[in-house]
Amino acid sequence: VFPGVRQAQWLTKTKLVEGLPPAVQGILDNPVHGLQELEERAKYAVSHARLWDTAEVAPRREQYCPLLFENLIHTCRLMSGKYPSLSKRMLARNFRIAATWERESILLQVRGLSGILMNSMTPIPPVASKEEILATKEHVLETFYPIAPTIDLQEVNVYKELNDTGQCFRDGYPYSHPHTLFFLESANVRTDRFRPEQLRAKMLMFAFGNALAKAKALHGNDPKVLEQPVVVQSVGTDGQLFQFMVFQLNTTDLVSNDGVKNLVWIDSDQNLYEKAQCVPEVKKKVVTKPAGISGFQPDTFKKFLALYLHGTV
Predict the structure, then answer these.
(1) What's the mean pLDDT in 52-78?
(2) Residues contacting 201, CB < 8 A, separation 6+
(3) Nearest residue to 102 via CA among 183, 211, 212
(4) What is the dihedral of CA 252, 257, 261, 267, to 10 degrees?
(5) What is the mean pLDDT of the chain?
(6) Range of the domain at 231
(7) How many distinct structural domains can be found in the chain?
(8) Cβ neighbourhood burial of 155 (10 Å; 0-12, 13-18, 19+)
(9) Number of C-beta neighbours around residue 221 at 10 A
């Protein structure tokens, strides 16, 4: 099977751009937002999840990964004092998404549990300009001939072509716009977790699915280039390594390889810290390695925070 993101790009008619989009990078680079003010709290959040919240010698990933996420989200919420509109967000858990589309002559569907979704009262503005969107017409999507790009997908009988944004987007729900999906790969056994490349592919497919379902809810099922693109972000982590993604749905006309493509920006494999020493290492009654977090990477936390702030500041 070929690498996951390349396959996901073909399935979703998407052009990949490495790194974060300028709209997010601008938040990172602008000192007025004071991202550095929360660095110590973020480091404390890591220590709390990895070192202090257990009586065990070392906490299990299934315990510390979700706790770290909750701690980081709580830290991000502290910015709502400076930016009150951040309080107009809601986290939806264990909700299901379904989105159906046609690609060449193949009917495709993404469905299932869609991570943890942060919803917002207002959509994230487009991150690519109209000129950048039109320029994607020149982009040639990679093909995998003679291998079919659907080689490892599960075949099912589809009796109803669902496009369902889940319970959380019922009519009248105030937090009606998908903002950021969070995927926690918290299985303790490594083989039960998605590898980073697989996780990025999953993030892309579900960001696309949420954006497509929202676009069809807003604009109907007719394939078209969207006047107002739909932006959905995604963050994936195993409790140490982070994947960041911003997806922009530019078109629901997905059948052919021609015309406008969708866009995704991916910032891969960002460590939040290098190591968590849960108990001190002692040799000949001398502490050679004290307990604690080593190699904390504040820039990774700032990227998490910038994605949280995106669309508000």
Answers:
(1) 89
(2) 3, 4, 5, 7, 8
(3) 212
(4) 120
(5) 89
(6) 3-309
(7) 1
(8) exposed
(9) 13
Contacts of 81 (CB under 8 A, 6+ apart): none
Residues pairing with 233 in the sheet: 180, 246
Which pairing describes strands 116-120 and 89-92: parallel, antiparallel, or unpaired?
A: antiparallel
The three state secondary structure string of the chain is CCCHHHHHHHHHCEEEEECCCHHHHHHHHCHHHCHHHHHHHHHHHHHHHHHHCCCCCCCCHHHHHHHHHHHHHHHHHHHHHCCHHHHCEEEECCCEEEEEEEECCEEEEEEEECCEEEEECCCCCCCCCHHHHHHHHHCCCCCCCCCCCCCCCCCCCCCCCCCECCHHHCCCCCCCEEEEEEEECCCCCHHHCCCHHHHHHHHHHHHHHHHHHHHHHHHCCCCCEEEEEEEEEEEEECCCEEEEEEEEEEECCCCCCCCCCEEEEEEEEEECCCEEECCCEEECCEEEECCEEECCCHHHHHHHHHHHHCCCC
Name the nearest CA neighbour of 161 among 217, 204, 105, 107.
Answer: 107
| Residue 239: CB atoms within 10 Å | 25
According to DSSP, the residues that pair with 206 across neighbouring strands are none
Name the pLDDT band for 2 (thresholds 50, 70, 90).
Answer: very low
Nearest to 257 by CA among 137, 107, 146: 137
Which has the closest alpha carbon to 215: 250, 166, 173, 255? 250
Please, how many CA atoms are within 13 Å of residue 235, restricted to the half-sphere of its CB? 25
**How is residue 302 written in tokens?**
């700032």
pLDDT of residue 151: 56
Percentage above 90 pLDDT, the chain: 69
CA dist 230 → 183, 208, 221, 265, 281 (Å): 20, 9, 15, 14, 50
Question: Which of 241, 127, 235, 230 shows the shortest CA–CA distance to 181?
Answer: 235
